[in-house]
Amino acid sequence: MIEKNFNPDVLDVKFSDMLSKLNDIKISNSHSPLNIAFLRNITIEPLIPFFEYQCLTKGIKANTYICDFDNIMQDILDENSKLYEHEPKIIFIFIKLEEIASKFYLQFSELSSTQINKHINDIVNIYKSMFDAIRERSNALIVFNNFEINPFPSEGILDSQKINGLANTIRRLNQELLSLKDTYNGILLLDLDLIVSKIGFINFQNNMQWHMSKMPFSNLAMRHISSEATKYITALKGDTKKCIILDCDNTLWGGVVGEDGVKGIALDQNHPGSYFIKFQKDLLNLKSQGILLAICSKNNEADVISVFRDNENMVLKENDFSCMKINWSLKPNNIKEIAKDLNIGLQHIIFVDDSDFEIEMVNELLPEVTAILVPKNLSELNNIFDNKGYFDKIQDSELDSNRTEMYLAERKRKKELSSKSNLEDYYNSLGIEARVGIMDLSDLPRVAQLTQKTNQFNLTTIRYAEQDIEALSKSKDSDILTLKANDKFGAYGLIGVAVLRYSENTLIIDSFLLSCRAIGRGLEVVLLEECINQAHNKKMKLVSGLFSKTQKNSQVEYFFDNHGFDTETKEASKTTYLCKINNLNVTSPEHIKVL
Q1: Do 158 and 165 contact (CB within 8 A), yes or no?
Q2: Tell me: the pLDDT tens digits for 194-217?
Q3: Which of 338, 292, 526, 558 is nearest to 427 (CA)?
Q4: How far apart are CA 442 and CA 466, in angstroms?
Q5: How far apart are CA 187 and CA 180, in angstroms?
Q6: Strand 574-580 to 90-94 pairing
Q7: Reported pTM
Q8: Cα separation of 323 and 536, whole Å?
Q9: Count H helices, E strands: the chain?
């Protein structure tokens, strides 16, 4: 594991300490290697240590490749280049505008409107050529930068008054580049102009380094760029946060409800109540993006519930929370119960509390949880999640906005379970319906998201980006099956994925996974049965499977064994299976209606 004195914040760590750690730190098996490539027309070598250090703080060992200076197209077009030999999962492209359109950037006032439009088209076409060439040879996620706005145009304040001034023209160019995301799968934008807005243009650039070595970024800018770039990696690997657990008194509102009363707490448009109103609105925005909210409060439950029901200034309502633990038990125990109820790992949880004591206890007993102390200066409350990348994702999913409602439906299922004398009666009472079929392209984002985020019921934990899934779905040598389900309490959505590959007379189950909220109802058997049906349809004689052990998927270690698969090889963390298709008899449970 990372040493305790390992500073996780690349914005604060001393450069000498960072280099020392990069040279000396022992990487445990929990640090997974990831091949990453950098293409550039500028000098970025000093940025790489910042980036690699930031990756290490996320448990990732970055194996980096950097193309030769201004050698982007040569690397992209040569299918035998070191770029493709490196087999990157992510390709970062760093381009400086004046290096590809010098006159456009440095002599802008001399250009006519026609010439400006031609320059924009030429620049966009350069990017299209790069993306087309890469996509012919690689399914890597591509992350490219936009261009920062120069706040010192030669025309001064007059420039801002012109639609076709330099500042507005660069904004238009950035929008044109952003629109390319809709043309290509697996293309994302790294917003350098946003970083400039954070730290200021003067702090972003280094003119001396630029003229001496073609290195445009200041030391501070490199720290911010590396921090921003690392967010794409954690999002790709599904390592972002899924749930925020909140204290109540002096966290969701000011004061103590048990002492101040429902109407006496600080929660209004006046200082300091306005800070808590804004914080609740921030939380509601995160909830709409699929982040689960929960409460862990040492309090009388009736007092807390009365705030939700009787204080008209409450932005958040009871139904905005997927789980509530309001009692006098130890908070680490309650947090573990919430994680169990929601079926998510502790590493995906943020805990927010105003008590130093509670935060320290959670840090000590549940180090996987990210514990955040409510700042003493309440003006900082609305920024506690900023710039951390806690909730970043690389694509939207239709299920995200409905996630809380799905967990509330799950709460009803658990209540139903408590009313039944045995599991058979419970399952029969649910009225589960399941549908398995070849993936529809409209489901592509959700399928990619499941491969990236599913850990517990995931036999191989192979992570796929959207462009990987699209390529597999179009190949004659592979299929992607999706599982959707619903019951009397509501829809589960798309909750299962199987990636199938065909090699001669063998069906290879490349990936097999089920969303954690659907575990334990037999739906995985429905998906497996359809995999076997596909093998029959394709006239396969053999079926091959793999279980790759991680710290989180031990519960499915014997999934193939339990369904009649023969072990071919067995190692400490990997078991392969191979058996004749006719020897398998997989049948969906009777309580599930397969449509």
Answers
A1: yes
A2: 999 999 999 999 999 999 999 999
A3: 526
A4: 11
A5: 8
A6: unpaired
A7: 0.81
A8: 44
A9: 24, 19
